[in-house]
Every structure is written in structure tokens, then in C-alpha cells.
Amino acid sequence: MNFNWDIFWHYLLQPSDIYLYGLWLTLTISVLAMLLGCSLGLLAALMRLSRNPLLQYPVRFYVWLMRGTPLLVQIVFLYTALAAGGIFRFEDLDLGLFTLPGNIQAAIIALGLNEGAYMAEIIRAGIGAVDRGQYEAGRSLGMTFPKLMRRIVLPQALRVIVPPIGNEFNVMLKNTTLVSVIGVPELLLSTQMVTSATFRVFELYLVVAIYFLALTTVWGFFQRWLERRFGKADAHASAPRRLFGRHAMKLLRGR
Amino acid sequence: MNGEIVIQAQGVHKAFGELEILKGVSLEVRRGEVVVLIGASGSGKTTFIRCINLLEDIQAGSIRVNGALMGYRERPDGRLVRDSERNIARRRRDIGMVFQRFNLFPHMTALENIIEAPIQVLGVARDTAVAEARALLARVRLSEKADHYPAQLSGGQQQRVAIARALAMKPQAMLFDEPTSALDPETVGEVLEVMKALAEDGMTMVVVTHEMGFAKEVADRVVVLHQGELIEEGPPAQVFGNPHHPRTREFLSRVL
């Protein structure tokens, strides 16, 4: 077996700057894309719940499109295909303190758009899980729809929404590797760059796998804390959770 | 009773698709009056009070509260146009509603449940709202439960908090939709007592209930609904003692 422990330990414990920059990019892109996804998802979920077809159908189309095409295709389409077709080109953005390269913008937007479709369904399910009586109580007290949503429905929906959001972020961390194809030097592309110079493919891919494991594990701890926090004062578990239990629900969600 | 009319329903029709639930119900409720609606299940009594504060929209007829139409605006030329959501929300403030299943906000304590709408909807200062809420909790005899969440309260306690929550909006009238039907028998009494005290304080109330004892004792007027129509109304002594309509007699013989 061609495996050099020294190189493995060296890259695992003393990562080069290129690696650390990749790690930083992976995290930043994940967080920003997730924030974008959550905002889009909330907006889409509220539009989808509207009885107005002009609001409802664009969202149905969006969700259908995003869930029906591979994320990798979406990324390449947004950054490369649109530019090749002369429709839209992501330009580097000078933000004073630093320059935000076009491909990183495209990466955040592509991942965020894709995430938004999944978040829309998650938030819709969360809002749907809130008892109808809560709406009636709020309305009978003279609340308008936005107030009802903000004060009564969304805080309750959050308990149903938070666990799957945790899973979505876990998926997001891993999905950032896909933006390596448009040249964003996140963890995977950084690894590729190092391997092309050192030819230590086995060791370095093992290192990158361990890095991702570490990221998702740390996130897992945080997620458990988050779920405990939002589960507080909640005597009633959601119906499916009561039926199948928490871990079965995680499996059923399937991602 | 000869106070001014608070709630005036005229020829209210309500249908769910093909199914006609209300076939032209008219009812007037005067200030300080306690009207109890009785009738078999499916007679439309719950639907009727839900129509009063527009939780259900109606297909024909009109509902006025303090003389003003609910849900519609009258144009100068007399035509009716559907009111905006915002105005409907505003009109609902005048009518408190108590639900069969309480519908307390589970993520808020009893006190927070009560102050929520006064602060968020009426714009009352927090201190004032809290002081009023404490007074209301004392009125429903739950002062010591102010910081409990609904899940930590019994059914009867939850329903009393729900009554306090509705009262916090200082409504002109209160609607009760089978307020004791979801309760354990031993907690029914405490809720009825609170409602009785409320009636004695002069609150205008429309109550849908199966508690005939409450109707006899507290109601100024008992109204009987049968298959979406108002078939009989009168003081409890008359409706219970000497009902005119054969359907009323049939219904009462089953429940008494």
C-alpha cells in the first residue's frame, strides 16, 4: 500500500494556508447560502400558502425546477452556461475591504436558490403543523395576517422546522464541494490543487474527508443543543414524531 | 331587556358547498343580555356564532355589531363591498370568542397569552397590559398560575385563561362556542361559574352549550336551532317548561 503517514499527519494537523482558506470558504459559503435559502424558503412558503394563484404557481414552478434538476447542473448553468449564452455574467465585486469573485457569488446564489426550494417545503410543513385553532384564536383577537404569522404561527412552526433545518445545513456543508467545478477554491478544490503538486492523493483525500466529518460532527452537537432549546415548554410532540419517534423521522426525511 | 342592540343578525345563510348549514337565521342581542343557543349537533349553532365574528363568511344575510355591518362596507349608493382584511380584523376586536378547545397559545404563559393581543393589536403599554391581565387572572381565580404554560394547566384552568384572554380586549360582547364540551366533568363547574359571574357583571353573551342547567339559570333568552333554522326562542322558563315547537320538545326530551 502506498500510504505515507507523515504526509497524512502533516496535512491533517498542520494544514497549509491554502487549506485553511478552503475551510473558511466552505464555511462562509455554507452559512451565506443557508441564510439565503432560509429567507427564500420563508417567502416561498408564505406565497405557496396563499390562495392567490399568481403567488402560488410561481413557487410551485420554482420548487419543481430546483428539486427536479441536479444541483451540480444548476451551479454550472448559473455561472458558466448563462455567461456562455451571453445572458448574464457574474463579475467580481469590489466591496472596498475585499473583492468578491464572481464565481463565489454564483456559488452562494446557486446553493441558496436550491436550498430555498427545500426550505420552502420544510417551512410549509412546519406552518401546516400549527393547529387551525391557533389561527382562529389569533383572528378572533383582531390580529392581522402578518401579526398572526409573526407572533403566533411561526414561533410554533419553528419547533417543527428546526430539526430538518439542522439536517439541511449538514447537507449544505457537504454540497459546497460541488462549487469546486466553477473554480471556487473551497476544501475540495484546495485538496485537488495540493494533490496535483504532491501526487499524495490517498492521504489528502482522507484528510479532506476527516475535515468534513469534523465539521458535520461539530454541527451535530450544535444541532442537538438547538433542538433541545426550541423543544422547551413543548409538551406535545408533533403527530408524526409521536407515531414514529424522532430517529425514525430523521431516516424518513431521507437526506 | 331593552338596552340597545349589540348584535343583529338578519337572514344569515351559510353553506359548505352543497350542504346548507344555516337557512336564514335572524337574531338580535341587546346590551347586557345572555342568549343561549341550544339544538342538536348539526343544527348550525356553532357555525352561527362563528359567522358573527367572521370566522366563517356568509352567503346571504347580514350581521351588524353596534349597528355597523361586519365584513362589508356600505357604499353611499347602498351597494355592499367586501371589507378589507385589515378592517375585518379591526371589527373583530369588539367581539371576544371562547372556543371549545381553548386554543391558548402554547408557546406563551397564561399571562403572556392575555397580554399578547392588547399589546400587539391595541397598542397598550406593557405595564398597563400586565396589570390588567393580573386583574383578569384574579377574576377567573387563577392568579397563582400566571407563569404557567397552557400544557401545565388543566382543561378548566385553560378555558378560564382563554376567557380572561378574550376579556382583555374589552369586547362589547362575548361568544362562547361550547366552552365546556372538551372538559373533564369535574372542571365544568369552575368554568360555568366564571361565565355566570361575567353575566352578572352585565356582559353581553351569546353561548352555545349543552349545559341545560346553565341555560336555565343564567340565560335571559334561550334560542333553539334545528337544521339551520331558528325554531323557537323565549325566556328559559318558557322554552324549557312549555316549548311550542314539536322539535324543541323532542330535543329537550333527549337531553334533559
Number of DSSP helices of chain A? 11
Overall pLDDT score of chain A? 88
How many individual helices of chain B? 9
Q: What separation lies between the terminal Cα atoms of chain A?
A: 34 Å
Brief description of this entry?
The complex is a heterodimer of chains A (about 260) and B (about 260). In chain A, about 75% of the residues lie in helices and about 0% in strands.
Tag the structure with descriptive keywords.
heterodimer; A: 255 residues; mainly alpha; two-stranded antiparallel ribbon; 2 strands; 77% helix; globular; B: 256 residues; alpha/beta; 6-stranded mixed β-sheet; 4-stranded antiparallel β-sheet; 12 strands
Would you give an account of this structure?
Chain A contains eleven helices and two strands. Chain A is mostly helical. Chain A has a two-stranded antiparallel sheet with strand order 1-2. In chain A, helix 1 (5-13) packs parallel to helix 9, helix 5 packs across helix 7 (145-175) and helix 8 packs antiparallel against helix 9 (201-231). Chain A is globular. Chain A starts with a helix and ends with a helix. In chain A, 33% of the residues are buried. Residues 233-239 of chain A have low confidence and may be disordered. By secondary structure, chain B is an alpha/beta fold. Chain B is 37% helix and 27% strand. Chain B is built from nine helices and twelve strands. Chain B has helices spanning 45-52, 85-92, 110-122, 126-139, 155-167, 185-200, 212-218, 236-241, 246-255; strands at residues 5-16, 19-30, 34-38, 60-65, 68-69, 72-74, 80-82, 95-98, 173-177, 204-208, 221-226, 229-234. Chain B has a six-stranded mixed sheet, with helices on both faces. Chain B has a four-stranded antiparallel sheet with strand order 2-1-4-5, with helices on one face. In chain B, helix 3 (110-122) crosses helix 4 and helix 4 (126-139) packs across helix 5. The longest helix of chain B has 16 residues, at 185-200. Chain B is globular and about 50 Å long. The two termini of chain B are 27 Å apart. The interface between A and B is medium-sized, with 21 and 30 residues.
